[in-house]
Each structure stands twice: as structure tokens, then as C-alpha cells.
Amino acid sequence: MSSLLPKHLHLTLKTHAQKVCSLYKRALRNEWSTYDDRWLYRYHAVLLRARFDKHKDEKDLRKAKMLLEEGEKELYDNLHYQPRKFSYSPGGINYGRSVTIPDWVLDFWHPLEKARYPEYFARREQRKQEYIERWEKKYGKPKEAEH
């Protein structure tokens, strides 16, 4: 399984090398999920790398494609039942937990709150004006709404 998207929704084509690199990385992550001891994981990671390096100079594209398909099938057959995930990545326990506050919220601060950070808000107003000028230079001024 190359990704979570169905094959008909892929927007870009991957080269064979990209597919091999992706398979290698997913196989390494699977090894990481399988072996708890660091030394045991490193041992199996080295064995995995040796298996990939054995075929790195394969010139026959049909054989290379067959090896890739066999590797994908082997990975799928040996997937860990509970893969490790990074906590802030999708599927991790902290994913989506910290909310990033949008910049426009600062526009609604009370003037007394803004007075506590005069240099920051002066620079922010200057950057907002620069952004507006760049926008108008690229797209033109917005038309007035007719009533």
C-alpha cells in the first residue's frame, strides 16, 4: 500500500527511485514498531538496508519493478498491528491538540492591550501595509461594491 489515497486520486507521478525510497522508509518505520530494544531495531535496520543495497544497481526495469512490487507485498504482509506514530503527526495522540491562533485575532485586541507591546504592533502595522501594497501591485485595487 503506497499511501492512504486511492490510486485514482494520486495527482503526481512518482519515479521508481521515489517509490523505492518510500518503501524503504515505511519498512524502517515498521521495524521501529516491531522491535522495542534499540540495538535489536538497529540490527534489523542494517539487515534491511543490506537487502535494498543488494539490488540498488539493477538495470533491468522489469526486474526492478517486480522487486518493488514484491517488497510492497512483503511489507503489507508484515505490517505491525499497532504501528508507532509520532505524537503530533496524523494518528498520533497529540495530533490537532494545540491550536494555532490566527493572526487576525490580534486586530481585535483592545488598545490598552496593544499598548503593552508598542514596537511589535508598530512593526505589524508596517508589514500589513507592505502586504496590502504588494497585493494591489500584483492584483490591482479592489473594486467598490455597488449597492
Structural class: mainly alpha
Task: Estimate the mean pLDDT confidence.
Answer: 91
Count the DSSP helices: 5
What is the strand tally?
0
Characterize the overall form: elongated
**Residue windows where pLDDT falls under 50 for at least 5 positions:** none
Series of secondary-structure elements, N-terminal to C-terminal: HHHHH
Query: DSSP strand (E) fraction?
Result: under 5%
The helix fraction, in percent, is: 40-55%
> Which value, in Å, is the CA radius of gyration?
26 Å
Q: First CA to last CA: what distance?
A: 55 Å
User: Main β-sheet: number of strands, strand sense, barrel status?
Assistant: none
Walk me through the structure.
It comes from Caerostris darwini. Belongs to the complex I LYR family. Keywords: Acetylation, Electron transport, Membrane, Mitochondrion, Mitochondrion inner membrane, Phosphoprotein, Respiratory chain, Transport. The chain is mainly alpha-helical and 147 residues long. The chain is 54% helix and 0% strand. The chain contains five helices and no strands. It has helices spanning 16-34, 38-54, 61-77, 111-115, 118-139. Helix 1 runs antiparallel to helix 2 (38-54) and helix 1 (16-34) packs parallel to helix 3 (61-77). The longest helix has 22 residues, at 118-139. The radius of gyration is 26 Å and the shape is elongated.
